[in-house]
Amino acid sequence: MPNRSQIEARAALLRQRFEIAGGVVVDPPLLQSAETLLDLYGEDIRARAYVTSDALRGEQMLRPDYTLPVVQMHMAAGAEPARYTYAGPVFRRQEQDPDRANEFVQVGYEVFDRTDPAAADAEVFALVSLQLRGLELRVATGDIGILMAAVEGLSTTPARKAALRRHIWRPRRFRALLDRFAGRTPMSESRKKLVSTTGPLTGTAPEIGKRRATEIDARVDTLRADAMAPPIAEHQMAALEALLAVRETVPYALEQMRDIAVDLPAILPALERLDARAAAMKARGIDIDRLDFEASYGRTSMEYYDGFVFGFYAERRPDLPPIATGGRYDALTRLLGQGGEIPAVGGVIRPDLILTLEGETRS
């Protein structure tokens, strides 16, 4: 196993290469506002981050990654276009897998540029790929934006679309909602009784818990409206399922998804963005004819990715986390921009994992 000094030395080298590519070195604080993270990800983030309390600043979290503080910094005072790089420790609880490190060094490169998003995607991917040259890695790519567009194109209610969008990053919950909205899963008896009632429920039984009466009645009204909505059409369900199953090289994946777009035309603009990205990657020397694309890839990563996503994996060491990951997070800049937004994409590398793989190769 590499020691700390080896890891820090490799991190410095990786960051230096990103500097040469145009990245300005930044070093956000270790402690981040828990309120901001909770607003973005809900209480789920508590299971993945270390939380502490400060009498003056309230709840704080040890930095779970760099992207959020870099976006906050850029949206507050950054020039355009901008490129940043960094290297330092991040902290994540690993209760589900105690063998994984809960503190590790992350090196990254982030691009904020509205002129050509496809070119920026290709730039980040190519630079990360170059840093990993010589390692035997499997590369996976995807595009969360295509799935979001597919959900938006479904012929169903805005409330159902919002629920599906919210759970794109939770595949099991997403699948359960789809089956319910398509009428494939029967409604539970308790819900049938609830939606068959009329008028407000509050006042007919003791109030238990912290929800106000108005909140309870609003929730019941929402369930009643959902029960009245027609199911998602079977041809759209079949098209969405076919989309989720796409796993091919980029050219063949594009071909398959264009066929699927006959029943889900809302994905066509996202497919054009994928086509432009593929062209930009090819211009940077990436062999897209051998580059894998998985339509479902990225659905279990951090929830701020909303477009291009990628990851590099050591197939001979499936026990290891990704050696590098990245993606596009335009919506995050809008959420943190206080009225402003800018297309943004970035990638991060684990120097400790690079050293581990190199050590195994030498031995």
Which SSEs are present, and which pair or pack?
Blueprint: H1 4-20, E1 24-25, E2 31-33, H2 34-41, E3 51-54, E4 58-62, H3 67-77, E5 82-91, E6 103-112, H4 117-131, E7 138-143, H5 144-152, H6 158-166, H7 171-181, H8 189-195, H9 213-228, H10 234-244, E8 247-249, H11 250-260, H12 268-283, E9 292-294, E10 308-313, E11 324-328, H13 330-336, E12 344-349, H14 351-362
Parallel strand pairs: 1-5, 7-9
Antiparallel strand pairs: 2-4, 3-4, 5-6, 6-12, 7-10, 8-9, 10-11, 11-12
Helix pairs in contact: 4-12, 6-7, 11-12
TL;DR?
The chain is of the alpha+beta class.
Work out the strand percent: 15-25%
Topology order in helix (H) and strand (E) letters:
HEEHEEHEEHEHHHHHHEHHEEEHEH
> How many strand units?
12
Distance from N terminus to C terminus (CA atoms, Å) equals 12 Å
**Uncertain regions spanning at least 5 consecutive residues:** none
The largest beta-sheet arranges its strands as: 1-5-6-12-11-10-7-9-8
Helix content: 40-55%
3D shape: globular
Structural class: alpha+beta
The mean pLDDT is: 87
Largest β-sheet summary:
9 strands, mixed
Q: Measured on Cα atoms, how large is the radius of gyration?
A: 23 Å
How many helix segments? 14
Describe what you observe in this structure:
- This protein has 363 residues and is α+β, with helices and mostly antiparallel strands.
- It has a domain of 77 residues.
- Helix content is 44%, strand content 17%.
- The protein contains 14 helices and twelve strands.
- The strands form two sheets. Strands 1-5-6-12-11-10-7-9-8 form a nine-stranded mixed sheet, sandwiched between helices.
- Strand 3 and strand 4 form a beta hairpin.
- Homodimer.
- It comes from Tritonibacter horizontis.
- One of its GO terms (molecular function) is glycosyltransferase activity.
